[in-house]
Amino acid sequence: MNIRTVTGNCGVSGLVLLLLCAAAMPAQQHPAAKHVAKAATVAEAKAFVDDAESRLFELGNKGQRAAWVQENFITDDTNQIAADAGEALNTLTVELATKAHRFDGLKLPPELARKMLLVKLSIGFPAPSNPAEQKELAAVSTSLAGDYGKGKWCADGSGPDAKCLDITAIERILATSRDPEELKRAWLGWHAVGAPMRERYARLVELGNKGSRELGYPDVGVIWRSMYDMPPDQFTKQADRLWEQLRPLYESLHAYVRGQLAKQYGATLVPAKGAIPVHLLGNLW
User: Fold this and answer.
1) The model's pTM
2) Can you tell me the distance from the alpha carbon of 59 to that of 91, in angstroms, rounded to the nearest whole number?
3) Residue 3 has pLDDT above 70, yes or no
């Protein structure tokens, strides 16, 4: 309600007269006031979780089947099938996560409480509530997976006679070759496959973060860090604590690998200090 609107309708002005004006107007009941919200019960929570589990199981299986076909037979049609299945599952997870908040504050048995939490966290990459953005998120996600799966490095160019290698063949080169130039070309060639995905990936993150905020989380990362039976901040501290325990072993392994690679390729390619050239490590990751 706007002060100018109220005073204008009453034919008076001034904040002092606003209360008198409002008192003279007929009382309007908010539509929601006609229906007193019914308190949620444990039985309703259990029914909700049972239904959620059943629906997630069904759509989850359909989504996995569609994704498997799309990843192994990448075409425009299988991309669309996977995108449609992903959109349906993502829409459902957001719907269930939103409805689950009705039971916030309700004392539930431990097992049911954990199931309710998992329903809220079943959103792997939450889509915004806008249907157009839900469809866009599914399409972007599927296109990224498709481009990655069919990506190839064409060492001799992109002509009709070019010899193009998929990820399996490139992995084989990195695992077996000891030619540092060949290794470098293969590593850079494969990672160039991801360059055209940059803008779509940024959009994927943007949409996911928007969907997360609509569900009450700052971003997707907070949702993911909430999936380990502890608050997300505590999970971060646990990860830091475990890393500090692991650090001495990692640094020892790092030093050992540097020494062995220096024996193989020489100190010029593998210096005593600084980063180890990543293409010499034997795999893409």
Assistant:
1) 0.72
2) 11
3) no
